[in-house]
Amino acid sequence: MRLYINVDHVATVRQARRTDEPDPVEAAAACERAGADGITAHLREDRRHIQDDDMRRLAATVTTVLNLELATADDIVQLATELRPFQATLVPERREEVTTEGGLNLGPAGAPPDPRLVESIGRLSNAGIRVSLFIDPDAATIDRAAELGVPAIELHTGEYAHTYRDSNAALDRLAAAVRHARAVGLAVHAGHGLTYRNVTAVAAIRDIEELNIGHSVVSRSIMVGMETAVREMRALVDAARVDPR
Ligand code: PXP
Fold first, then answer.
1. pTM for the predicted model, two decimal places
2. Cα(214) to centroid of ligand 1, in Å?
3. Is 49 part of the annotated catalytic residue set?
């Protein structure tokens, strides 16, 4: 399983003072030294954490792979096509939200897809970038994603993260969604709200090939340093794969 670390919240701390520390690019290098398979960063339209210059520097220095999260904003799609990260994950964005609160709305079955989404997928794919869509774990949305011709999806694990203490229902839905996505030929990634406490059950779902984890690792890095924080998460993910579900 590939473990990609999202360094957005290193930039959140920096932007709290609009200064030059801590540097998400330096943090990304530490993640790589500690065994991350890739670096994820979200260039939001409101630029609340990662800035364009961070993206440029990440694209120039990441030695593993870069996964750029973005909405269908024209200027950001344009920047992505210039920087050509290994992967672009399209996400929904609302300015008032604290974080990405749900997956992309791909519309009802049978309806024509959002032209902005189709255009963004086309521009990114034509630039040679692997495109993934961040969606909720339900079969109809997965079918819509497959119709859009992308190679991969990232399943939103937020519901699981909010409810795992009380019920297995979200985990069962996630596992069913993973099976469905594989059956229709999509590569499956997952992320959002995963922590040291809840990651194991998700990492144990065999057909998930990539996890994107940010807030929990950056939080822990304040206590133990980035390399140790990533090593600890890496160890949990790898241990879960010994006996996959
Ligand atoms: N995956 C996607 C598509 C996201 O938008 C985010 C948050 O930026 C993450 C994963 C990481 O979520 P978290 O910070 O809760 O680990």
1. 0.96
2. 6
3. no
